[in-house]
């Protein structure tokens, strides 16, 4: 592995020449290159220096010594991209004034290219390089006209009618509920809903009463039969079924659901009466 890497600029070329001229195994060199790429990616992901840890390396770390420091040229490559030893400590520091992302990004590309050419690695073996952050020079406008798909742009007026907090959804997307008192009393809409529910319950009760049947026990029976709704009941031999008639008075003036239910019951009773008056006939009798 004594081939010179002629296309690389010093001092990176010297570091890689030392790496490939050594007696290190290809697997160890590939491990060192992969680790160096990870260090570079950490720096590229933090272009503004918010995380100082990505610019500090503990040279006494066992993993670092095994993966990078033990391979000739590993430390020299880090020095080539701007790292330096911090005094007499064991820390390698990348100073911001020595940090040039263009050079660091080029150093990463060199590592990937050499690994593919010299070690027969695949490009897919390495992660995609972090994209450079784009800093906008345009001053931020006042926040009112910019469209944000994740921000609510509707003012919930229905919530105010139903008693919910009308300011929970603000046109600006901000929660202003703390600026307004909460609704604790029953609103007109809530009362109307309760009244509608009550009317429906009363209509259902009237429907059940119109379909209920009263059993008149015969002389041979001392116990009346239990009453069942929906026109279902049990009769003993000799007992008669009496159903209360549905008069027109039940539907006069009735509006809404109650009137509809009463009209339906009346029609059903009239149809049943017609069938009873027709009598029982057989096919032979009709012929």
UniProtKB/TrEMBL annotation:
CDD domains the UniProt entry points to: PUB
Domain PUB: 29-94
Record field: compositional bias (Basic and acidic residues): 173-192, 268-277
Record region (Disordered): 167-192, 268-287
Top-level division of the source organism's lineage: Eukaryota
PANTHER family associated with the record: F13M7.16 PROTEIN (PTHR46713)
UniProt protein name: PUB domain-containing protein
Source species of the chain: Corethron hystrix
